[in-house]
Design goal:
By secondary structure, this protein is mostly helical.
């Protein structure tokens, strides 16, 4: 009896260790969200505008989503440590090579394609590991791991700002890349999937009865709920990613904040991005994906209206609105995987979510291009916020009409 209790305690501690390590790994690869800190320096060095300076960020998010799709079917077949090692080498190499880029197009290849691909390879591993170890509370636990990705700018934006100030933007790319190559594989070393006995243990750690609806990828794509989930996720991430990429520019150019003040505020926004993941994961578990989506779109509309009345010196409105924007991007990165698990089960989760996650890449491309063009054409940021309100209305219609609640 004592032996059984000790084994159970050890397995419980072991699976919580995976959550902690997953959070730190996500924090490393989530440095992509600190692009706004690099953006103004890049615009000055290469003498480019807002649309072009968004290319590396946009392409990195697109390849991050693409590699999530391509890697999904291999997550259950290979050791998670090996997958993380391959991905981390690409992440680090992309950052290091970015430090030698001579123009925005080379930087788009190194930071966007190479590093973005590495992020996509690594990203799915911690989520898949903890989802298998915590089948009784998948939404909350996946959201908890994803808090690292959202909180990343809280740590990495000030670090990047310090490095840029003291070493320049190009040297900063190289320093961060070298760090990622060392840190990420070390953190992933203990990772493993549960054995059959451990999986049975993890399923019995809660009194909650777990219902599964194991639907394969082909059948998932044919369902009406998939269309609603895909479009809603694309809209939610499109809004969040375009605004994260413009956070620094809006703060400096519209609100007239100093770059250092914006970097500090981005740390606050990163906290909201991080806590949005477990909170929306819990909301999706507790209520339904449709209700969680409705809450998110409603909050974004409110924040967009706040920015429409903001102007030079409106630090309070800016802080509240962008906290809400970052909070909801974090929320969507918990709503989508939790909804995928709830609608289509755990058996084909890696492949299913890989397909769903391509909406993130499409949202990144459309959002970053559209926001940059709108700003360049109309010459102000207010038009971007009108565009966001329209997207939210479309998101509400798609999520409430097409998605079926299980």
């Amino acid at each position: 009896m004592k032996k059984t209790i000790k084994q159970s305690d050890m397995k419980c501690r072991q699976r919580w260790l995976y959550v902690f390590l997953g959070i730190i790994i996500m924090m490393c690869i989530g440095t992509v969200y600190s692009w706004s800190v690099f953006r103004i320096s890049i615009e000055k060095i290469f003498d480019i505008g807002a649309a072009q300076s968004g290319f590396p960020y946009m392409i990195s998010l697109a390849f991050y989503a693409l590699l999530m799709l391509l890697t999904g079917k291999y997550l259950d077949k290979y050791n998670p440590k090996l997958i993380v090692l391959i991905g981390s080498l690409l992440v680090g190499l992309g950052w290091i090579l970015s430090g030698f880029a001579k123009n925005i197009y080379v930087l788009t290849v190194t930071y966007g394609i190479i590093s973005g691909s590495g992020v996509g390879i690594v990203y799915g591993v911690p989520m898949t590991v903890v989802a298998k170890w915590f089948p009784e509370k998948k939404g909350f636990i996946v959201g908890l791991v994803l808090i690292g990705f959202g909180l990343s700018p809280f740590i990495t934006a000030p670090i990047a700002g310090y490095l840029i100030k003291n070493y320049g933007v190009m040297k900063s790319f190289q320093i961060l890349g070298a760090a990622f190559i060392v840190i990420i594989p070390l953190l992933s070393y203990p990772f493993s999937y549960p054995s059959e006995d451990n999986y049975k243990y993890s399923k019995t750690t809660s009194n909650t009865t777990i219902k599964t609806h194991d639907i394969n990828t082909s059948d998932m794509i044919k369902s009406e709920s998939f269309k609603g989930l895909y479009l809603s996720f694309m809209i939610g991430t499109m809004i969040g990613l375009m605004l994260i990429g413009m956070t620094s520019s809006v703060g400096i150019e519209l609100i007239n904040l100093s770059p250092n003040k914006v970097v500090l505020l981005m740390s606050l926004f990163a906290v909201f991005n991080g806590i949005g993941r477990p909170i929306f994961g819990w909301l999706t578990d507790k209520f339904s994906h449709k209700k969680a989506m409705l809450i998110s779109f409603g909050l974004i509309i409110m924040a967009a209206f706040l920015m429409l009345i903001a102007n030079n010196g409106s630090v309070g409105l800016y802080s509240i609105a962008f906290s809400i924007f970052w909070f909801n991007l974090g929320g969507w990165l918990a709503i989508a995987p939790t909804s995928t698990l709830a609608l289509y089960g755990t058996k084909h989760y890696s492949q299913n979510y890989g397909v769903v996650f391509t909406a993130y890449g499409i949202g990144a491309i459309i959002g970053v291009v559209a926001s940059g063009l709108i700003k360049d054409v109309f010459g102000n940021y207010y038009s971007v916020f009108y565009f966001i309100i329209g997207l939210c209305v479309l998101g509400i219609l798609s999520s409430q009409k097409l998605i079926k609640t299980r």
